[in-house]
Specification:
Helix content: 25-40%
Strand content: 15-25%
Number of strands: 14
Radius of gyration: 20 Å
CATH class of the largest domain: Alpha Beta
Distance between the termini: 38 Å
CATH architecture of the largest domain: 3-Layer(aba) Sandwich
CATH topology of the largest domain: Rossmann fold
Largest sheet: 7 strands, parallel
CATH superfamily of the largest domain: Methylesterase CheB, C-terminal domain
Order of helices and strands: EHEHEHEHEHHEHEHEEEEHEHEHEH
Structural class: alpha/beta
Strand order of the largest sheet: 8-9-7-6-12-13-14
Amino acid sequence: MSHPVRVLIVDDSATMRSLISAVLRRDPEIAVVGTAADPLEARAAIKELNPDVITLDVEMPNMNGLEFLEKIMRLRPMPVVMVSTLTQAGTDVTLAALEIGAVDAVAKPAPGVSAQEAFGDLAEKVKIAARSRVRPLETREAKAVDGAYRADPNHILAIGASTGGVEALLNILSAFPANCPATVVTQHMPATFTKSFAARLDKASGATVTEAVDGAPLMPGHVYIAPGGETHLEVSGSRCRLVAADPVNGHRPSVDVLFNSVARLGRPMTGVILTGMGKDGAKGLLAMRQAGARSLGQDEQSCVVYGMPRAAFELGAVERQLSLPRLAPAILDLCAAGAPASKPVA
């Protein structure tokens, strides 16, 4: 950006407002233009200061952060980074916020953890949020597929996502029927979130959505979410494998690791790359295409961050780019019984 990112900090704790301000002010590309103790103060500050990004606490007086976020995304869509506790309740609310349209989230310092350590990536997330694309809440919906659908029982679907992926995956998987293709998903997400995320997706989808466990059989009608933190999700034969290894492209789990493992399967497959910062998944999706996979990418207009899909498209790994509402039916068409197979590309 040509000017420092203007940030408004919204938190009911004066101590937390001071900590977040101190961390962000260390970055010369960020300007903290104001703070607010609750959504009522924040609403006035937004009108007066016109910030580029808001950091928003979850639990506040007068109106909680989730309710305030809904109002923002309906009335004045703008980039929001949630700041939450790592309690179960905090995790659930944060995931709900990401579904509504918050760009990202960071955790407040746990006991014994310094603010600098806890908020080590906050400045980068704020700058990414400033470059992101947000849309009004009411424009996001997906239509469930009717009961006549039948997936190819041998087909494997692999999906990769990062920033903005919570909303995108909810949109896509909520349209999946109970007999969807066996699906593996790597979403860049902390370990504390992935189990709860899988449970939220399970409630929204006709498919059975779970956090992947090592050795789990890949079955139609099931979606397996890569656990965050310590391992990469791979597929081997007809099973999920959790592999302890170094981060790839700065991520663990990595989309490239998942896609490369799918490319080695030698069976019908489709790869999909969704919104996210960076290039993770681009080379892996190309490997899938070279092995004969069909492939789709989310288009720039519907991405929160058009990074990973752009990198894959520029490598020639993406057959078609589609808007988020069009992705679910297109994915299911490619994975359907009797769908034409792709030929390997050079």
